Amino acid sequence: MANHDQQPPWGNKKKPQTPEEMVAQIIKKLQNYFSDQKKPSGGGDDDEGSKRSFNPFSGIGKILAIILVVLLIQGILSSIYKIAPGEVGVILRLGNYNKTTQPGLHLKIPYIDHLFKVDVENIRKEEFGFRLQSAGQRSTFTRRDYDMESLMLTADKNVINVAWIVQYRVKDPRDFLFMVKDVRQAVRDLSESVTRRIVGNMDFDYVLSNRDLLAASVKQELQAELDGIRAGIILGAVQFQDINPPDTVKPAFNEVNEADQDMKRLVNEAEKVYNQVIPKARGEAKQIVEEARGYSAERINNAKGETSRFLAILKEYESTPDVTRKRMYIETMQSILPKVESVYVLDENQQSPLPLLNLSREKGLNLSESQK
User: CB 6: neighbour CB atoms within 10 A?
Assistant: First the structure.
């Protein structure tokens, strides 16, 4: 028979090594089978041959055999699948989640298991308020027909034009496939809703000058919203590309900015004068207060000293009045007489006072004049 041609010289049959060789061997066996069926048998009767040729079930059997073989081959081929690096495979068995497979070769039950491949490493990006036309060293963008995405109203009732980018990747392939019907549209809707709510709670100037804080707030709230609906993704970055007033109000906005800058300049000048005058006045006031406190302390200390001296003299006077009185008189004269310029001596027998020549004082005056 034809099968003998496939046997090697040592008598063992050659086994297929790969699925392609197995399929080729099965097809060759079918061809040999049908070719043997077509050959007439030599010792048979013509009536029996005619009966075989007119048997209606022989053609149906062949068709069913071919269908079974095709299904078998298809099942064998579909049971082996490959997951590329950066992907994972999600297996459904009879419509229910069964497992998640990692990169590599795997087996599944044909016609029962269904495979979904999900790219978990690719960074997906959504653009709002603009679209990227060509990427490169000089990327080109277009903002035409995207004003409805970017125009927003701030808390102080000003219109602002905001363009931003949301980057994300798949975190949970099961949730990504089956929990949300259209994850991309959900990201766009939630991102626009969260951004409008946060911008609507901020003033116009705050939005313009706090781009990083705005992006961090949007990322945090958007991630919470996506986790709430189990979208199965994690945000990579939220970047605000352009925040400007609309073109129709830019001239008025520039005038407002100029007025604001003039106001800030005048305020800075006033603060400069304030910093120069007020500290000086405060220093002078503090100096006056300290001088007054020093004078007050000096007068109080002097008064206390005089009081103590008077009390000490009083005590001595009470013990020895005559001696104390005479000592006080002498001490008083010693302190007063050097300051007296003219001295007059009164005598009871004379009718007029006699002047006393102060030689020591005249000598001191002559000495001072000679020194000059």
Answer: 12
Query: pLDDT, tens digit, for every residue of 23-73?
Result: 667 767 766 665 655 555 444 454 454 444 445 445 676 677 777 777 787
CB count within 10 Å of CB 236 equals: 14
Q: How far apart are CA 2 and CA 25, in angstroms?
A: 12
Q: What is the CATH number of domain 124-245?
A: 3.30.479.30
pTM above 0.70, yes or no: no
Neighbours of 234 (CB within 10 A): 13
In which band, very low, low, confident or very high, does the pLDDT at 7 lie, cut at 50, 70 and 90?
very low
C-alpha count within 13 angstroms, C-beta hemisphere, residue 306: 6
Provide the β-strand partners of residue 165: 127, 239
DSSP string, 114-176: EEEEEESSS-EEEEES-EEEE-STT-EEE-TT-HHHHEEE-TTS-EEEEEEEEEEEES-HHHH
